[in-house]
Write a structure and sequence with these properties.
The complex is a heterodimer.
Chain A: H1 6-12, H2 27-47, E1 51-56, E2 64-69, H3 74-96, E3 100-101, H4 102-108, H5 110-113, H6 116-129, E4 139-140, E5 147-148, E6 153-154, E7 160-161, H7 165-174, E8 179-183, E9 206-210, H8 227-239, E10 245-248, H9 253-270, E11 278-282, H10 285-290, H11 292-296, H12 311-324, E12 333-335, H13 338-353, H14 358-373, E13 375-377, H15 389-402
Parallel strand pairs in A: 3-4, 5-8, 9-10, 10-11
Antiparallel strand pairs in A: 1-2, 6-7, 8-9, 12-13
Chain B: E1 5-11, E2 19-24, E3 28-33, E4 38-42, E5 50-54, E6 62-67, E7 73-78, E8 83-88, E9 95-101, E10 114-116, E11 122-126, E12 132-136, E13 144-148, E14 159-164, E15 170-175, E16 180-184, E17 189-194, E18 201-206, E19 212-217, E20 222-226, E21 232-236, E22 243-248, E23 254-259, E24 264-268, E25 273-278, E26 285-291, E27 299-304, E28 309-314
The chains are: A alpha/beta, B mainly beta.
Keywords (chain A): DNA-binding, Isomerase, Magnesium, Metal-binding, Topoisomerase
Pfam families (chain A): TOP6A-Spo11_Toprim, TP6A_N
Cofactor (chain A): Mg(2+)
Chain lengths: 403, 318
């Protein structure tokens, strides 16, 4: 790996313009389409007829369906109300030129939607019904991630998202699900915001995907990548193949499954291209064994007897936990629960059923060893005094030099 | 005095993935791995050739295999939760399917470790919620005949290992929370609850005479208990990693242990010391087993993450 100096950054950095491949529809067209639906409803109201919206029940645009109000069942009436509310919010967002999130829509009327998933599905189906992309409704996925490092992204409306705080908030509402760390060789350290020229991404040498550590949104699947996230990573893979991409995930069934998702979805896109693979940095069983001395210091909290012996210590531990994280807090290393085992077996079934390449074999082995060892470890377990730097230095060094 | 063991042969890449379990009969050794195939090695031949390969035994891989002491039956448990029984055809020497244990209680996580009785008539298995089930596998229906609880119903600690005594009197189990239980099979009751390891117990073995129980795991020590009073009679210390596997020699004089750092040790029970340490690999050993004594000298074998099976023979000197 080259020593990164100011000069090499400029020479090596590739400039990438992110242009979505999808054809977009102008806001005016979408507004017109929504208004025509609303007008039709108004006409029905005026004539005292039953209200209806033409809708589809899946994303491919098939299964046309007309939803009526009051309809034949209470369910249909509820669905009508939900669609109408989403139409209204999309209309508002388009007219005012703002962007709304699916999460935001859900909170407009929790009682009506009940579950976030309902909103997600309806928005997607509505986009299909209107024959537009979801983004054209000015409705985007809920914020799920952050990025760090000298990166700026040019969006299709020519706004530039940079690492500065204000822009970071923007990317929250805009897309990404995961942490992206752009690393310089050497210790992991927060990289200072670097001014970069508008409509491009400039990178340092390593893109580092820190999966499933983000738990601030409980309704999302704890870091499972969506297509948008994967396509973002694909863009980097194909435009900047010199940048190695690593995934670091928990050593537990979900962590291994998230890794599988990144690889699976990247393969889906990459059939006609060749690009460096997304590499698995850890945590693997070997990492646990290499630090066995740290395992031995711990008496495993078994899921069966998590209750501390006396209430005093219970309070103390709760107190110290609260200071570490305000969200979900788990032990960095713990015994597999019955649920973990079931999930691991389910993933194992999928891995065994898929291709037989080296990556699948490695994942299969790690799942089996996970079950054999009976313990799981979170990324935090690698911490020493609150930083992953030492471990990352060694691991990245090994993998980059070994490659 | 220490004992000398020599590596007599190593079957390299005996499986394409980690070998998780070994089980011996008088003339063969069965090996189970992360692949779907079970292997049967001929231990009567000095080159330990592959005698039989049983494909598609466990689609998701196999974590435990065991044999009856009479060498006529074997059982294997897969990651998918299925348990299969295998029968030896005495004339051809081939293993064939003897059925599967099915029913609502056999599902992922429901069966982990397994042990067969001396005559192969009974199979003991552990569950993720700490129960020990005993099945009548000689019967066509393969019914569950005993169910031992080790906690309040459905909340016991994961059962990591199990063993049956040769006389069929006792069942012993080791659990993730460090507890070891001994059950009386005649009364169907728990006999002893043995504590002292505090960390996951990955291996438990009842001595051939049925007088001792050895238990070991992440604590790195082997605890020895007597079965008469449930007393803790000693510890064998010296492993510096998790102990994954234990096996008593035929006479009960020696205990074999394997650990995650690739080391295999032979312990003298009488003197309470380690008499031999070997390591062919620094990768995890998942299974260590004595071979039933057929020739002049004792033999044992080891297998694990390096996918190979190593055979050791006692150096007799004479």
């Amino acid at each position: 790996m080259d020593q990164v100096t100011e000069g090499t950054i400029i020479r090596d950095a590739r400039q990438v313009i992110i242009r979505p491949v999808t054809v977009t529809t102008s806001a005016g067209t979408v507004i017109t389409r929504i208004e025509s639906i609303l007008e039709a409803i108004l006409d029905c109201l005026a004539q005292g007829k039953e209200l209806s919206i033409d809708f589809v029940t899946n994303r491919s645009g098939h299964n046309p369906q007309t939803v009526h109000f009051p309809g034949r069942t209470a369910l249909e009436a509820t669905k009508f109300a939900r669609i109408l509310l989403i139409l209204q919010l999309a209309h508002d967002a388009l007219v005012s030129g703002t962007v709304s999130t699916k999460r935001h829509i859900f909170y407009q009327h929790q009682g009506l939607f009940v579950r976030q998933r309902t909103v997600d599905e309806l928005v997607d189906n509505l986009a299909s019904a209107l024959n537009v992309q979801r983004d054209d409704l000015n409705i985007v996925a809920s914020s799920k991630g952050v990025f760090l490092g000298p990166l700026s992204i040019c969006l299709q409306d020519n706004t530039v998202i940079g690492p500065a705080v204000g822009d970071a908030v923007r990317i929250f509402t805009r897309n990404y699900y995961l942490s992206l760390f752009f690393l310089q060789p050497g210790p992991l350290q927060p990289l200072a915001a670097k001014p970069s020229d508008g409509s491009c991404i400039s990178f340092f040498s390593v893109l580092f995907v820190l999966a499933n550590v983000l738990r601030w949104s409980r309704t999302t699947h704890n870091g499972y990548p969506d297509m948008l996230t994967c396509s973002f990573i694909q863009l980097i893979r194909f435009n900047c193949p010199q940048i190695p991409i690593f995934v670091l995930a928990d050593y537990d069934p979900d962590g291994l499954n998230i890794l599988r998702h990144y690889r699976l979805k990247s393969e889906f896109v990459s059939q006609e291209f060749t690009a460096p693979a997304i590499r698995w940095l850890g945590i693997k069983s070997q990492d646990l064994l290499e630090r066995k001395s740290r395992l031995d210091m711990l008496i495993l909290p078994s899921p069966d007897n998590l209750q501390p012996p006396d209430s005093q210590s219970s309070e103390e531990s709760t107190g110290s936990k609260a200071s570490i994280s305000s969200t979900e807090c788990r032990e960095p290393i713990s015994a597999l629960s019955t649920r973990d085992r079931k999930v691991a077996v389910r993933i194992l079934e999928k891995v065994v059923g898929s291709r037989d390449d080296l990556e699948a074999i490695e994942l299969r082995r790690e799942l089996q060893v996970l079950l054999m060892m009976g313990i799981k470890a979170e990324i935090q377990w690698l911490d020493e005094a609150g930083t992953l730097a030492g471990w990352l230095d060694i691991k990245l060094g090994q993998m980059l030099l070994g490659a | 005095m220490s004992k000398q063991y020599l590596t007599t042969h190593t079957v390299d890449d005996a499986h394409i993935t980690d070998i998780f379990s070994l089980a011996a009969t008088p003339r063969t050794l069965l090996s189970a791995s992360g692949s779907s195939t079970l292997h049967v090695h001929d231990t009567a031949d000095p080159s330990f050739p592959l005698r039989q390969s049983i494909p598609d035994a466990h689609k998701l891989g196999c974590h435990h295999v065991c044999t009856s002491r009479n060498g006529l039956y074997a059982a294997s448990a897969g990651f998918g939760g299925e348990v299969k029984i295998w029968e030896l055809n005495k004339e051809t020497g081939d293993w064939s399917s003897g059925g599967e244990i099915t029913g609502p209680t056999v599902k992922p996580g429901e069966v982990w470790a397994i042990a067969l009785s001396e005559d192969g008539g009974y199979l003991a298995s552990t569950t993720s919620d700490g129960r020990i089930n005993v099945w009548d596998v000689a019967d066509q229906g393969k019914a569950k005949i005993r169910e031992y609880e080790t906690g309040s119903a459905g909340s016991g600690s994961f059962g990591m290992c199990v063993d049956l005594s040769r006389d069929g009197k006792f069942t012993a189990s080791g659990h993730q929370n460090g507890s070891v239980y001994v059950f009386n099979n005649d009364t169907g009751r728990i006999l002893y609850s043995l504590s002292g390891l505090a960390k996951p117990v990955r291996a438990v073995a009842i001595s051939p005479a049925g007088t001792r129980v050895a238990a070991a795991g992440d604590a790195g020590i082997i605890a020895i208990y007597d079965t008469k009073h449930g007393e803790h009679v000693g510890n064998l210390t010296g492993h510096s990693s998790w102990i994954t596997s234990l096996d008593w020699s035929d006479t009960g004089e020696y205990l074999l242990s394997g650990s995650m750092d690739g080391k295999v040790k032979v312990w003298s029970i009488e003197r309470g010391v380690c008499v031999a340490t070997h390591s062919e690999t620094d990768k995890a050993l998942w299974a260590v087993r004595w071979l039933p004594k057929t020739g002049r000298s004792e033999m044992f074998c080891t297998a694990g993450a390096n996918r190979s099976i190593s055979f050791y023979r006692e150096a007799t000197g004479s």
